[in-house]
Design a protein that fits this description.
312 residues; alpha/beta; Spore Coat Polysaccharide Biosynthesis Protein SpsA, Chain A; 2 domains; 7 strands; elongated; binds uridine-5'-diphosphate; binds magnesium ion
């Protein structure tokens, strides 16, 4: 199979049939063998009924989550079911143009990219979205060392082994290129894509808190990549440094008290600083141990917790 097209959706009933028809008309002309995988992220409108009826066409699969868990989990489930040599993700709201698919496919197959991310250079969204997004992309570029302009673009193409190597949860879909790089897939390209205005329904990502959450997620990903497999390397080091500072202060105060016979140790603020450093140092060290215990007991796969109904 040439292509798997993964489409996460939450309350997008008006767009779904139009999108499926658009994809068919682009890909059938080019004789691609492909599948479309719709993942209904717990919609409360009739999106599920619509995609279920679309499964009468043999190359469409529909999967439904029990409740609205988030775009990342929906994509993750799509990745699990994908079979095409190239995997394309796109939003369900008709903002991404299916005419971009063939060029993205060629960049993976012929140019050898692991991942190609769309760039909505001329983005047709309100200014409350576009300006903060620029800031967020700049911060992500700086922290990740990946020179993309539009990390969170819904339209992306991957080779199959990339999607099988990454695990998405929470709101991590914003950082897929970074996760791919961490997994060893660093041939990451970019393509300027045609972006369209939302015609039906409304954005699911309008709140301002998505930027603070997004930056916190970026810090978590970078932290996990660096220390996720060896938390003791961070906490143990900080703990020892902190404890030693406290210990030196305590030793100095003991010296002034016992040898120089100066004032009472507890009268000096330095005494409390020394105590604090030793206590915090010990706690940091113990956090490192706890981290090591937790990663060794981590369950391998969380996917079982999601209910799936495939194409009935
Ligand atoms: N989406 C989803 N689960 C959610 C929120 C959004 O599957 O909890 C889907 C949504 O239906 C759309 C895509 O993710 O297909 C992108 O969402 P949206 O268009 O609202 O984001 P925007 O383009 O405004 O950034
Ligand atoms: Mg959209």
């Amino acid at each position: 199979m040439h292509l798997s097209i993964i489409i996460p959706l939450f309350n997008e009933s008006e767009s779904l049939k139009i999108l499926a028809d658009e994809i068919h008309s682009v890909l059938n002309d080019l004789n691609y063998v492909y599948e479309i995988i719709f993942i209904d992220d717990g919609s409360t409108d009739n999106s599920w009924d619509i995609i279920r009826s679309l499964t009468s066409e043999t190359n469409i699969k529909a999967i439904r989550l029990k409740k609205n868990i988030g775009k990342s989990t929906a994509l993750d489930l799509g990745f699990l079911h994908a079979n095409g040599k190239v995997v394309i993700t796109m939003d369900a709201d008709l903002q991404d143009d299916p005419h971009e698919i063939p060029a993205l496919y060629n960049m993976i197959i012929n140019d050898g990219y692991d991942l190609v991310s769309g760039w909505k250079k001329n983005r047709l969204d309100p200014i409350s979205k576009t300006i903060p997004t620029k800031l967020y992309n700049w911060a992500t570029r700086m922290m990740s060392g990946i020179s993309l302009h539009d990390f969170n673009c819904g339209l992306k193409a991957y080779s199959l082994d990339v999607v099988k190597a990454i695990k998405l949860s929470g709101e991590m879909h914003r950082y897929i290129p970074l996760l791919a790089k961490h997994a060893g897939y660093d041939k990451i390209g970019e393509k300027i894509i045609h972006h369209r205005k939302r015609t039906y329904g409304e954005t699911k990502y309008g709140g301002w808190n998505r930027f603070s959450n997004g930056l916190l997620d970026l810090i978590s990903i970078s932290f996990l990549h660096k220390f996720g497999k060896a938390p003791m390397h961070l906490f143990g080091f900080l703990g020892i440094v902190c404890f030693l500072i406290g210990f030196v202060i305590a030793a100095y105060l003991t010296y002034t008290k016992i040898i120089l016979l100066q004032f009472n140790m507890t009268d000096r603020p330095l005494f409390y600083l020394g105590m604090l450093c030793m206590i915090i140092g010990t706690q940091l060290f113990l956090s490192g141990f706890l981290g090591e215990l937790i990663i060794r007991n981590k369950p391998a796969n969380h996917v079982d917790k999601i209910s799936q109904k495939i194409g009935f």
